[in-house]
Design goal:
116 residues, alpha/beta
């Protein structure tokens, strides 16, 4: 399975394969039709507390990454395992997120967790 990353605001393409939104909150100003999702996996997104700490309280990227990996290994591990199982049936999966920063976002960490 190939896992790609893409902003949910970018136009869907046939090459996206199975499209999964991995944000806890629905993206502002985006209709469900335009999002063209196959699945909304909000249960594997960072917790509300962690998301707020990173985006609003200046939690550093390394600290966010460590905390999110801990969430994925702990309380979110069952949801992560279920998602991994569901995605295994698809040759191409695109994880969609609303974050502007392509180098520092939770979808990068989630992709790594799904591939390991």
């Amino acid at each position: 399975m190939e896992i790609r990353l893409k902003r949910v605001y970018d136009e869907p393409t046939p090459g996206d394969g199975f499209r999964v939104l991995v944000d806890r909150l629905w993206p502002r100003g985006l209709s469900k039709e335009r999002a063209a999702l196959d699945l909304w996996a909000n249960e594997v997104a960072p917790s509300t507390e962690l998301r707020k700490a990173f985006h609003h309280d200046d939690l550093s990227w390394p600290d966010f990454e460590a905390a999110y990996r801990a969430e994925l290994a702990g309380p979110t591990s069952t949801a992560l395992a279920s998602l991994r199982e569901e995605l295994a049936a698809h040759p191409v999966v695109t994880l969609l997120h609303a974050v502007n920063d392509e180098a520092h976002n939770h979808a990068l960490i989630l992709r790594d967790a799904l591939e390991s």
